[in-house]
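Data availability (excerpt). The following record was deposited with the supplementary files.
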Amino acid sequence: MIILHRMPRTPGRRAAVATVGVFDGVHRAHQRILRTTVARARVLRLTSCAVTFDPHPQQILRPDRPMPLLMTLAQRLEWMAACGIATTIVIPFTRTFAKLTPERFVTDMLVRRLGVRELIVGERFVFGQARRGNTRLLRRLAGALGLTVRAVRPVQEGGEAISSSRIRTAIGRGDVASATRWLGHPVTLTGTVVRGAARGRQWGVPTANLHVEDLALPGRGVYAVRVRLRHRWYAGVMNIGTRPTLRHGLPLTIEVHLLQFHGTLYGERPEVWVVERLRDERRFASLERLRAQLGRDVARAKQRLQLAPPLPAV
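Predicted structure:
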């Protein structure tokens, strides 16, 4: 997949079927839109193109209401490529860009500069200044621009549309099973390994302390995980919590124990796939009982990961 970090400056040939959106999480509803874009491009013998934004518009427009993301930009692009998109344009989202009218965005950026002949969007798609643009406006503009607009139905489960906000809520309460089902791929965390207290190493269960920024974190608890590191996959156990057995009032930490790994990880950026929630975080009466439970957590994680779907190629 070709990745561009700005719109073409010169008028483009009318040779693209495109879609537009943030696509945070690239969940099943996003995948339907992206694959429809690819399929239409093949039918028309044109190139498939996706236009996305970074940072997330809400991070710029509502900085007072931080919104954790479902994946990093790099992961988003990776999953968009997996859907078959040929070219993705990442537009830097700024307050100036937010003032662009829907009419100008479609006419100038999509049709004139990108050369879009057919536009694929979700039925609930909104865009442009004050979110004034929608499918009704797109269809009104389409005739004069020689543009075809196709609206894709949402993907529903349990009578409710799958959305990034619904998935974010499920992750926050630790329901990674539902989140994974709605995403169509595992819940993923990426961060930098930083130094911790090294208590796990002293107990024979060394852990990597992961510093994660801006991503939606699963609720406190213990999880079976798979970790991609240095082009290899490892089974592991992840704990998210405040370690209540050791001391009260500690900050939230993310600790990952990699099975069959030996060495140091400081400064590394592993990718953690959250496979299954094993148990809630709880306080133990003694460190001995905590150590015994950690052993049971590792054994159960090994068992559950053997039953999990096969790993993708790295």
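Summary of structural features: The domain at 2-160 is CATH 3.40.50.620 (Rossmann fold).
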